[in-house]
Amino acid sequence: MTDTEKYDRQLRLWGEDGQAKLEKSHICLINGTATGTETLKNLVLPGIGAFTVVDGNKVGASDLGNNFFLDTTCLGHSRALKVSEYLRELNDRVKGSSCEEDPVALISDKITFFKDFDLVIANKLPEQSLITLAAYLYENNIPLLIVNSYGYIGYLRIVTPEHQIIESKPDTPLDDLRIYNPWKELEVESDNVDLSNMNAQQHSHVPYILLLVKFLKEWRNEKNNGKMPETRAEKDEFKKFFISKSHNSDEENFNEGVKGLFKYLQPPRVPSEVEAILNDPKTSNINQQSDDFWVLAAALKQFVDQHKVLPLPGNIPDLTSDTITYVTLQKLYHDKANADLEDFNTKVESIVSNTNRQPIPSDSIKKFAKNSRFINIIRYRSLNDEYTIPNTSVIQSEIEMDNNSNVNFYLVLRAVEKFNQTHNRYPGASDEDVDSDVPLLKSILATILSEISISSTIVKDDYITEIIRYGNSELHNIASLMGGITSQEVIKLITHQYVPLNNTFIFNGINSTATPFKL
Amino acid sequence: MNVVVDTDIYINREKERMTEDKFQHIRDCIGDDVFEKVQKAKVLVVGAGGIGCELLKNLVLSGFKDIHIIDLDTIDLSNLNRQFLFRKHHIGMSKAKIAREAVLKYNPDVNIEAHEGDIKNQQYGHQYFQRFDLVMNALDNLSARKHVNRMCLSVGVPLVESGTAGYLGQATVILKEKTECFECLPKEAPKEFAVCTIRSNPSSPIHCIVWAKMLYGRLFDVADENNAVTDMDDNIVEGDPEKGTEVRDTKLEQAKAKGYDHWVFHKVFHTDIDRLARMKDLWTGKTPPTPLLLDDLLNNYQKNNGNNNNNNNGTITTKSIALNSQIVNSFEDNTRAFVEVIKKLKERLEKDGAKSWDKDDDLALDFVVAASNIRSHIFGIPLKSKFDIKQMAGNIVPAIATTNAIISGFIVLEAFKILSSRDQIQEKCKTTFLFKQPSNKRVIYPVSIDQPNKSCYVCSQTVVTLKIDTNTTTIGKLVNEVLKKGLAFHEPMIMKGQSMIYEGGDDLDKEELDARKMVEQKPMITFGLSDNAIIEVHDYLQDIKVSILISHCDKFEDQNKFFEVSGKPPQVQSDTTTAATTTTTDGTVQQEDIDEVEIIEYPPPSDGKLKRKEREQDDITVEEEQMQEEQDPHKRTKK
């Protein structure tokens, strides 16, 4: 049982289902830097199940200047231990542990250490170890978030082979009301509306849904040989026809109908994201090992093949109506949604029994059917692909469009990591190296650019001097901001709600811009 | 990487490095000159809640050393999912004070002054605001934000204004004469409902919830002449007593004799419903609602319970009922809860006096849950869970740590810019919007800040036209409903020419107060506030002076309104700080946006101007909308 009082404000965002998923998750943080600690802080507060901090470093002076939770008493102690101690204080419902081993050694000697986590957040991990870890987690279907901040610049990369979203929760979803394609009962209900026998009060309280269905049918039969209005002219004509049926311009129900009119004259269609899922080879290849998601998608495909529409969600918007008609209409939609769900359910069950797999909980089936317009899937490129088969065209077009694009920082940060891999230190980390590091970093960048097949002169030297100026130091404020962004994406990934970033995100605190790239 | 060193040597070396400068990395990044300004700056953080906690941490770790923080609120359990400076044992204590202690524990070398108080209080006047180099709002209610906006404008101190709601957030910068102010653009008005929908013709749960809150106000809060939800002694259900045609509900008297619970139940769920059911026009061709009789219901429950349990001892007892938060309780449970809660509230009223409705007052919440659900049942509207009703009745906005962390980061970035280039704030600073998910592929959207809106009555000299019935509107109503609630004045003073008509505030002696009370009761016309008169309204605390042209009007298109302001459309907002649904400002029942409500202006689709109107255009077809969305995002932001 979750703590509904304490979590009240977030339960209203992701619901008990989202909360349960969070509380079941065990998250690993590699390196308790300011950015890492701030990220984990924002996950401990809303109550993930457990976390483990892996960090071989001892707390040093630079930590105290940018990590809020570390004070002078922590100096010389294990950073993994101290960070997890302080984070545990934030929420007594979260289990926290620490691993004082060097993550680099852990990855090379005992990579299976990471196999039981639900998600891993990696921070300031040397390139080679990062690539090894990323490949391992990708294979094991464990999401990895790489987050780093350097001075004013933040970097985030999400890596996971396939992320399924059932509730994408778009900002302005269109209500599926079937005005264009009413089912029998809705059509009968609208046929029964007899405006001629109504007084003014009643006339202005017939729900616009019924009005639209009724007059659309009337208009088609009287004016358009039974055809739907297709051209703009026809739609305008129908609009005039509809308005002519109102008593005056004060009738709110008619006004509501006019407001939504053009939307409802669109032929119903399956959204392209959903279409892509239905046509995915995985839906025609269901076996015992298939995820619930794909079993449900396969059933949805059958449903759409048969009915040409998605299951009706069944909720209707607030609209002008008298109470009783509203409730009747609500029930009409509710009943149809239930009938659709039942049909969908039958299809799911038959797939389940044909493939001899575990049954799917009825709550999940219902959630899927209700949200079928909003399902989505993201397939992230692997880190290995990003490095070995670079997405040159994206980078090229970014820079061509704007030679000050944040993609410059992506390229320079790639060089910074390579520098660290080569020299075992970050460029500009100590004052005496600042000047001599410039040509070193520049030549590494040139190599990377040639690997990506991009002109080596394309990145201005300013970017190199800027990043060297930061000398691998974290600004707390940027660390905190990146921690906020990263944890927000973690929550989206764990709850399978909302659409997360895909796949690289560069934050630029110099001019407060942020750009996602698909690399 | 890990060289084995003697721990003591290591610690000493690190301590030494620390005393040298633990902020060397910040100097490296932002430059010595800006860092010096940061170290010297005196800043004010208004609010120690979700944003305030994050912001205080960020400021201290960015090198700020002189920080004032103010909040009037105390710590609540539901804060702990994001306000990370607080623990369970702090519940009930001052947010500002605990936030200060928590930060000092980790960072003893900064100076933080904490105030447990209301920023609108007179003690935080011009002299107080003037001493800051920068003010940062971390507030959750409109009236305080408007007030701080005006205070900062009046003393010319830069203000970073921010807000979050769920996954959404924004931060921006305001400076007198350089940027638009908080009130240059109208804020989205809270949803309003017509009085007749609430009283006679509810069609969704929210209508019943608003009604239930009004009923709470009528029964358990101080008397409010505008609250006409029901008249407890009126038993007329049809007809006109003056014509002798009235029909009365004679059972009301009997119910009253049985106790307060029976009386209220009978009045609002029988007498009032009966009256509505008899209005034939409302129900032609439909089934009118059925009035409820409490005794019948209780007897029925008793019978059913008895049959089920085989344990009927013949007496009517009401089993104690606790409303479950998450599930939708049955009509029976709601009825039982209503009876029980109303008794307790009556006892409390007699013992402790009137109390405003508050979502965190469990008894008051249970009342609204039970009453609204019973009313929904009567009108065939679906019942709701306590969890959902709390959100709707309390205007609860979801709040999480992540969003606050991001927005606080932006606030500090803007603070750096303000301190480093005070002369170019409008050019350098940005308004930043945070989306809940990639929109046009972006989650963060910076736009440039506009210059002051020439027609803003707050930051530009603009004459506002007020349409109002000057014959019937009293000065009291003008001050409370129009000037305070409508135009967000704190302590308005009304001048007509050289003569002062009304003076607000509480530093008046008894004689002056009595005189003011007399003035409040008289209609505007008495003082020459008639058609075409021009008045000036001053507020010394906010240092604002607005000229208002009065235009007499006794018929409003919208029957629920009694005044209209134009010239610049200021938002009609209530000024109360407790959660309540009241019949306010323009006479319509309004869900106030108070407590935790953080206003989000939705970011523009393309070029930095808010185009809310455009979004509402009816004839953008779906295809056209999608085409707009599919346009390359970079082409839009590149300027």
From TrEMBL, chain A:
<dbReference type="InterPro" id="IPR030667">
    <property type="entry name" value="APP-BP1"/>
</dbReference>
<keyword id="KW-0833">Ubl conjugation pathway</keyword>
<comment type="similarity">
    <text>Belongs to the ubiquitin-activating E1 family. ULA1 subfamily.</text>
</comment>
<dbReference type="InterPro" id="IPR045886">
    <property type="entry name" value="ThiF/MoeB/HesA"/>
</dbReference>
<dbReference type="GO" id="GO:0043327">
    <property type="term" value="P:chemotaxis to cAMP"/>
</dbReference>
<dbReference type="GO" id="GO:0019954">
    <property type="term" value="P:asexual reproduction"/>
</dbReference>
<dbReference type="InterPro" id="IPR000594">
    <property type="entry name" value="ThiF_NAD_FAD-bd"/>
</dbReference>
<dbReference type="InterPro" id="IPR035985">
    <property type="entry name" value="Ubiquitin-activating_enz"/>
</dbReference>
<dbReference type="GO" id="GO:0043326">
    <property type="term" value="P:chemotaxis to folate"/>
</dbReference>
<dbReference type="GO" id="GO:0045116">
    <property type="term" value="P:protein neddylation"/>
</dbReference>
<comment type="pathway">
    <text>Protein modification; protein neddylation.</text>
</comment>
<dbReference type="GO" id="GO:0030587">
    <property type="term" value="P:sorocarp development"/>
</dbReference>
<dbReference type="Pfam" id="PF00899">
    <property type="entry name" value="ThiF"/>
</dbReference>
<dbReference type="GO" id="GO:0005737">
    <property type="term" value="C:cytoplasm"/>
</dbReference>
<protein>
    <recommendedName>
        <fullName>NEDD8-activating enzyme E1 regulatory subunit</fullName>
    </recommendedName>
</protein>
<feature type="domain" description="THIF-type NAD/FAD binding fold">
    <location>
        <begin position="7"/>
        <end position="513"/>
    </location>
</feature>
<dbReference type="GO" id="GO:0019781">
    <property type="term" value="F:NEDD8 activating enzyme activity"/>
</dbReference>
TrEMBL record, chain B:
<feature type="domain" description="Ubiquitin/SUMO-activating enzyme ubiquitin-like">
    <location>
        <begin position="466"/>
        <end position="557"/>
    </location>
</feature>
<comment type="similarity">
    <text>Belongs to the ubiquitin-activating E1 family.</text>
</comment>
<dbReference type="GO" id="GO:0016925">
    <property type="term" value="P:protein sumoylation"/>
</dbReference>
<dbReference type="InterPro" id="IPR035985">
    <property type="entry name" value="Ubiquitin-activating_enz"/>
</dbReference>
<dbReference type="InterPro" id="IPR000594">
    <property type="entry name" value="ThiF_NAD_FAD-bd"/>
</dbReference>
<feature type="binding site">
    <location>
        <position position="456"/>
    </location>
    <ligand>
        <name>Zn(2+)</name>
    </ligand>
</feature>
<dbReference type="GO" id="GO:0019948">
    <property type="term" value="F:SUMO activating enzyme activity"/>
</dbReference>
<comment type="subunit">
    <text>Heterodimer.</text>
</comment>
<keyword id="KW-0539">Nucleus</keyword>
<dbReference type="InterPro" id="IPR028077">
    <property type="entry name" value="UAE_UbL_dom"/>
</dbReference>
<feature type="binding site">
    <location>
        <begin position="79"/>
        <end position="82"/>
    </location>
    <ligand>
        <name>ATP</name>
    </ligand>
</feature>
<feature type="domain" description="Ubiquitin-activating enzyme SCCH">
    <location>
        <begin position="315"/>
        <end position="390"/>
    </location>
</feature>
<comment type="pathway">
    <text>Protein modification; protein sumoylation.</text>
</comment>
<feature type="binding site">
    <location>
        <position position="181"/>
    </location>
    <ligand>
        <name>Zn(2+)</name>
    </ligand>
</feature>
<protein>
    <recommendedName>
        <fullName>SUMO-activating enzyme subunit</fullName>
    </recommendedName>
</protein>
<dbReference type="InterPro" id="IPR023318">
    <property type="entry name" value="Ub_act_enz_dom_a_sf"/>
</dbReference>
<feature type="domain" description="THIF-type NAD/FAD binding fold">
    <location>
        <begin position="29"/>
        <end position="457"/>
    </location>
</feature>
<dbReference type="GO" id="GO:0005524">
    <property type="term" value="F:ATP binding"/>
</dbReference>
<feature type="binding site">
    <location>
        <position position="71"/>
    </location>
    <ligand>
        <name>ATP</name>
    </ligand>
</feature>
<feature type="region of interest" description="Disordered">
    <location>
        <begin position="566"/>
        <end position="639"/>
    </location>
</feature>
<keyword id="KW-0547">Nucleotide-binding</keyword>
<feature type="binding site">
    <location>
        <position position="459"/>
    </location>
    <ligand>
        <name>Zn(2+)</name>
    </ligand>
</feature>
